[in-house]
Design a protein that fits this description.
By secondary structure, this protein is α/β, with parallel strands linked by helices. Helix content is 40%, strand content 15%. The strands form 2 sheets. A 7-stranded mixed β-sheet has the order 3-2-1-4-5-10-11, with helices on both faces. Strands 7-8-6-9 form a 4-stranded parallel β-sheet, sandwiched between helices.
Length: 409
């Protein structure tokens, strides 16, 4: 694109929340404003589509006044999205019609394309996971093929699961792990509320155990600096430790684990398990289907994990095996994902936003991130055809193997 061009820039956040959405918007505004001040572009309009793709389909948007560009840095202190989210799949016509986003006979891609053309959008920043960003790429391709227009799409990879190929680290995952550890630091005190207490800490993560593993790591690092009293007290470092970490990438023998954890319960009076919500989902779904039950799914066809409750399922099975008198299932997901970005994530978002604006001005589409397939893992606009979700966590990482060994798994 010409450096002298007036840029009509749009932004939207989509999918579930993550501790990066507000900071992503703040940094993108900052670097676009800088580009204008430095003369890299001749003019700038920044438009926010409200509630993700819903806003694109319904024409619900707002233009940010230039005089408040510098004030947007306050967004770094906020969790959630400053412009709203939604889960919408542009190729799911039936769902879009049912929710009133398009009329009968309309296609969501065409409606969205017409809206971007009407608003004169040159660049759209899609802040979301792999579904959000690959949909944006399809929309851009559609506009080019059907309408001869060009919309540069520069995605920002948001997901606390850290499960997107070929990106080293997605936005918000580190913060979510930190917040999940903080959550459990309080919840673990419930182990003292009743004899033989079983606590299941259910952590978000559909296909990847990254967040569960990283949360466990951060919690145990924090615990190593904690001080406990001498003999005579029931609360000890062992009673507040993690006794099991169950993730999708490591096969689970519930009977064998129950036998091991029964000894932990007998010794410490409690058992604390970190469970990835995606662990054992296939088993739960198979059982539901065998019983003739309908498996709840979202607009993308994903199993609705919140409705099938993996934590409750496993707690019932484990409670009998370890002889628990009371069981508590606590989910840290909504607490963790709604936080503001931590220092690590803000630095990552800052660097990706800076490169993302430069890429947009150069007319290069892609999803920003550290490209693990390139030498040196540079931050660049990664080609959308290479973006794919479902990347598993590597359980062979030395730190994770060490963690499992330390807790006796």
């Amino acid at each position: 694109m010409s450096a002298a061009q007036h840029m009509n820039v749009a932004m939207m956040t989509s999918g579930g929340l993550a501790p990066c959405l507000s900071s992503s918007v703040a940094y993108l505004i900052e670097f676009w404003a800088s580009a204008l001040k430095e003369g890299k572009i001749s003019g700038l309009t920044i438009r926010m589509y409200i509630d993700g793709y819903k806003g694109v389909l319904t024409g619900d948007s707002t233009v940010i006044a230039p005089e408040i560009y510098d004030e947007c840095s306050c967004l770094h202190d906020l969790g959630g999205s400053p412009i709203g989210n939604s889960r919408v799949k542009l190729t799911n016509v039936k769902d879009c019609m049912a929710r009133g986003f398009v009329k009968e006979g309309e296609t969501p891609l065409e409606v969205a394309a017409q809206q971007l053309i009407k608003d004169g959008i040159n660049v759209i920043h899609t802040i979301g996971g792999d579904d959000t960003n690959t949909q944006a790429a399809e929309l851009s391709k559609y506009i080019l093929e059907k309408h001869g227009g060009k919309v540069v799409v520069v995605g920002m990879p948001k997901t606390i699961d850290n499960d997107v190929y070929p990106i080293v680290q997605t936005f918000g995952a580190d913060t979510a792990a930190e917040q999940g550890a903080l959550f459990f630091k309080n919840v673990v005190s419930e182990s003292s509320a009743n004899p033989r207490m079983l606590i299941i800490h259910e952590v978000m993560g559909r296909d990847s155990g990254y967040l569960t593993a990283a949360t466990a790591r951060k919690y145990r690092e924090e615990m190593k600096s904690a001080k406990f009293t001498g003999p005579g007290f029931t609360t000890t470092a062992k009673s507040r430790d993690i006794h099991a970490v169950w993730i999708p990438e490591v096969s689970l023998d519930i009977a064998k684990e129950g036998e091991r954890l029964k000894k932990v319960m007998d010794e410490n009076g409690c058992v604390n398990v970190f469970l990835s919500e995606g662990a054992g989902v296939e088993e739960i779904v198979a059982e539901m289907e065998a019983n003739g039950e309908e498996v709840p799914r979202d607009a993308f066809g994903h199993v609705s994990l919140a409705k099938i409750n993996p934590g409750v399922y496993f707690s019932k099975r484990l409670a009998g095996l370890v002889g628990a008198e009371k069981t508590l299932v606590q989910k840290s997901g909504y607490f963790a994902r709604a936080a503001a970005s931590n220092t690590f994530d803000r630095k990552l978002i800052h660097d990706c936003a800076k490169e993302g604006v430069a890429s947009a001005i150069a007319g290069v589409s892609g999803c920003m991130g550290q490209d693990e397939d390139k030498e040196g893992q540079p931050i660049r606009a990664i080609e959308f055809e290479r973006i794919k979700g479902g990347k598993p966590f590597n359980p062979e990482l030395p730190w994770f193997k060490e963690l499992l060994a330390e807790i006796g798994m």
